[in-house]
# Entry
Amino acid sequence: MKKRLIELLCTRSFKYSEQAIFKLASGTMSQFYVNCKPVMLDPEGMFLVGNLVFDQIRNSDCTGVGGLTFGADPIAVATSFASYLGKRPVKAFSIRKEQKDHGMIKWVEGDMAEGEKVVIVEDVVTTGGSTIKAVQRARTQGLDVIQVITLVDRQEGGIEKIKEHVDKVSAIVSRSDLMSWMELNMA
# Structure
């Protein structure tokens, strides 16, 4: 499954240039750009992502999976669906970018209760900033963040920064995986 996911990411989501031409959310320029949405929102990609993330949380005691909208939403939904099929249901939730100013006025949307153990998911980690924000907001709502999983680690120090906030952090795919596939298949 991972090999196929790497192939989909490389053919639909990953861009590389000899020059730093891609502007990232942080404002820095990069040679690499990864937009996972074309893969995460594709039926096969959704199947692969959901199952690969579920495989990493199957034996944990988490009851929810989610992260900062919109990057984490397809991952959380696909994982929740795979967990139900795997007979170990885990709920999906979403963390808002802006807090609601009406109703319940909360960061987290979904059927989550204070004290529940959750896994934060992210599509791409570069600096780790948005993932750390998601961890902090989940904790503000009383959730116990026990793990972070990113679909793609750009290998630019973000995982190490996240580990300052959560002990268990992993990536399904690394930039090295993507570059290796590109070198073998696009030469």
